[in-house]
Amino acid sequence: MAVHFAVNTTMVLLGVNAPVTQAMIIGIQATVTVLLLATSRPATKAAPTALATPAPQADGAARA
Question: Are the CB atoms for 49 and 43 separated by under 8 Å?
Fold first, then answer.
């Protein structure tokens, strides 16, 4: 959606009417988008830390 918004805003602000110019602007913005996506670092997901709960003992007594 952000790329679509950027293309529309560029067209309006520059008053672009020629199809060749429109194609060039879309091509440049698509190239920039691909480069940004290709060079951005992926978000690192930390493993969720679960509270360790001790397993019950075989004799049924609770661990301390």
Answer: no
Neighbours of 51 (CB within 10 A): 4
Q: Exposed, middle or buried by CB within 10 Å (0-12, 13-18, 19+), for 58?
A: exposed
Give the integer Cα–Cα distance in Å for 26 and 21.
9
pLDDT in tens, 4-51: 888 788 888 888 888 898 888 888 888 988 998 888 777 677 666 656
* Residue ranges per structural domain of the chain: 3-7+16-39
